[in-house]
Amino acid sequence: MRLFLFCLLLSAALPALAGGWRVVGDEQFAPYSFQYGEDPQPRGLDVEVVQAVLREAGIEYQLRLYPWARVKQMLALGDAEMAFQFAGTPERKAQYELVGPLRSGATVFMTTRKLPLADWRRLEDLRPYVVGQVSGYAYEAAFDSFELVRDSSAQNPRQLVAMLLAGRIDIIVGDRLQLMHFVREQRAEQQVRILPRPLVEMPRYVAFAKGDSARAQRFASALQRLQRAGKLDAIYRRWGL
């Protein structure tokens, strides 16, 4: 009976093992990870970096992009072995085995030219305004816990930019390169401005389930080899980082 149960469990696991690592990322994080329309092909800076590291490590994989909430859920439920791209906050480090960073990006505040706020020095300076952010995103520990009037109804950064341009919120927070990508999509460069002081220079990581140190170390070793050899620099330059 025990032998039968063991064989049954083994046969159930084989399809997942045969396909290699199941790697998932955010489908709405252009220019870092995204898809064009109905084309399922993952694209973006982080996609190319992750693929390069997996090739260097000799790992077979299947890479797919999903809504961010589903990415986190898949990793939590064991439906994916690896996910990207997570902010390096204390909360995330407590939740996952983080490896990286793959890169860093400036997290900034963007507003329209109609708003009189020239810059900010303390988070208190933002209290008179409605600050928009993407539901489920972590930005920076002090900001995330600070009491502000927030609108977290946006499901992705593209929607967040649209809400700002429509006048539904006063200020939005996000990655500089990404926010400008969606502003250019709308040809709205002249309507917005980025406050000079960034919130934080945020490193971005890949994540494994807590305790999955073997996979984490295998990916980390390959990433370090490529970074030391400068073999990822061409990818960064091509995407304007």
How does this model look, in words?
By secondary structure, this protein is an alpha/beta fold. Helix content is 39%, strand content 28%.
What does the oligomeric state look like here? single chain
Q: Total number of β-strand segments? A: 11
- Number of helical elements: 9
Largest sheet: 9 strands, mixed
Share in helix:
25-40%
The ordered H/E elements are: HEEEHEHEHEEHEHEHEEHH
* Alpha-beta classification: alpha/beta
Mean pLDDT over the full residue set = 90
Strand content: 25-35%
Rg, please?
20 Å
List low-pLDDT spans: 1-18
Shape: globular
Task: State the end-to-end CA separation.
Answer: 58 Å
Protein name: Transporter substrate-binding domain-containing protein
InterPro entries: Solute-binding_3/MltF_N
Keywords: Signal
Signal peptide: 1-18
